[in-house]
Design brief:
single chain; about 300 residues; alpha/beta; TIM Barrel; 8-stranded parallel sheet; 13 helices; about 10% strand; Aldolase_TIM; 4-hydroxy-tetrahydrodipicolinate synthase activity
C-alpha cells in the first residue's frame, strides 16, 4: 500500500540566505521561513533550485534543514530537495536529511548526465528504497533534460513511498495524461508558477511556488480563490501576478526571485557563483516589473499589508 501524506496547498521553494562572504546566513534563512509560515503557507521545500541546493556542501545542507525544522515546529511539513550527481550521492543526502528531521524528500533525476528511461527509473527506485521518507518526484525536463513520462511512473507504482509528482514540464496537457495513466495513485503538484492556475483547474492538489517567497498573501489568496471555485477572483489575481510568475521559468530564476524578495523586505539577493547579482538593464527590467506589480496589487490583498 502506498504511503499516505497530507501534503496539499502552497509549498514555497525557499531561498538560502548568504552573508557578504557567501557563507550561509542561518538567521536570515530562518527569519524568511518564519515569515512565510506566519503568512499561511502549507508546507516548505528547502534546497531546491531556488534554495541553491547544488551550491551547498552536505554539512551546509544539514545545517539549513535542521534550522528549518526548528522554525517549522511541526506546524507544516518540511521537504528537502535532493539533486545530486550520482544515485549513491542522492541516497547519502537523503539519509542526512532524514537525520536532520525533515518530513519528506523532493527528488530530482541525477544531475548533469542525461539518463535514459531505464536509468531514470532505477535512480528513483534505488533512492526510494534507501529511505522510509515519503518522496515527491520532480519532473522538469526543460531544465534538467530528463523527462519522467506517465509510462515511466507506471513502473514506479509499486514503490510505496513515492507519493507525489511535481509536474514542471510547462505543458499542462501532461497533468491530464498523468491522471489518465495513473488514476489517483500519486498526488500531483503544480511545479511552475506561470501555469499554476491552469494546473489547479486540472486537478493538482498543491503548488511548489517560487514567487510566494516574496508575495505569500497574494499566493494564498490565489490558492484560496481557486479552491473555493471563485475563478473570477482567481483570474484577477493571476493576471496581475503573471509578469512576475514568468520569472520562475527563466534561466536566472534564482537571481530574479531573490531580487524580488529583497525588494519586498525578505532577505538578500546574494547568490553563490557562478550565479552573479543582476546588473544594468536586466536588473532594472526585473525591478520595473516588480515595482509595477507592487503598485497595482489586488485591492483586498493590498489592504492587508497596510
Amino acid at each position: 500500500m502506498p504511503l499516505k501524506v497530507n501534503w496539499e496547498g502552497v509549498f514555497p521553494a525557499i531561498p538560502t540566505q548568504f552573508k557578504e562572504d557567501l557563507s550561509i546566513d542561518i538567521e536570515a534563512t530562518q527569519k524568511h521561513t518564519e515569515a512565510l509560515v506566519n503568512n499561511g503557507i502549507h508546507g516548505i521545500v528547502m534546497l531546491g533550485t531556488i534554495g541553491e541546493g547544488t551550491s551547498l556542501t552536505l554539512s551546509e545542507k544539514v545545517e539549513v534543514l535542521r534550522a528549518t525544522v526548528e522554525v517549522a515546529g511541526g506546524k507544516v511539513p518540511v521537504l528537502s530537495g535532493i539533486a545530486e550527481f550520482t544515485t549513491q550521492g542522492a541516497c547519502d543526502t537523503v539519509k542526512a536529511a532524514g537525520e536532520a528531521g525533515v518530513d519528506g524528500i523532493m527528488l530530482l533525476p541525477a544531475m548533469v548526465y542525461k539518463s535514459d528511461a531505464r536509468e531514470t527509473i532505477a535512480h528513483f527506485r534505488t533512492v526510494a528504497n534507501s529511505t522510509h521518507l515519503p518522496i515527491m518526484c520532480y519532473n522538469n525536463p526543460p531544465v534538467y533534460r530528463v523527462d519522467i513520462t506517465p509510462e515511466m511512473f507506471k513502473e514506479l507504482i509499486d514503490v510505496e513511498n513515492i507519493v507525489v509528482i511535481k509536474e514542471a514540464s510547462g505543458d499542462v496537457r501532461r497533468i491530464t495524461e498523468l491522471f489518465n495513466a495513473l488514476n489517483d495513485r500519486f498526488l500531483i503538484f503544480a511545479g511552475l508558477d506561470d501555469v499554476a492556475l491552469e494546473s489547479f483547474m486540472l486537478g493538482c492538489t498543491g503548488w511548489i511556488s517560487g514567487l510566494v517567497d516574496a508575495f505569500p498573501r497574494e499566493n494564498r489568496a490565489l490558492w484560496d480563490a481557486a479552491m473555493s471555485g471563485d475563478y473570477e477572483r482567481a483570474l484577477e489575481i493571476y493576471r496581475w501576478y503573471m509578469p512576475m510568475l514568468r520569472f520562475d521559468s527563466h534561466p536566472k530564476l534564482v537571481q530574479y526571485i531573490k531580487l524580488t524578495c529583497q525588494e519586498l523586505g525578505y532577505g538578500h539577493e546574494r547568490t553563490r557563483p557562478p550565479r552573479l547579482p543582476l546588473v544594468g538593464e536586466e536588473r532594472e527590467h526585473v525591478l520595473g516589473i516588480v515595482r509595477n506589480c507592487i503598485a497595482t496589487r489586488p485591492q483586498e490583498v493590498a489592504s492587508a499589508h497596510t
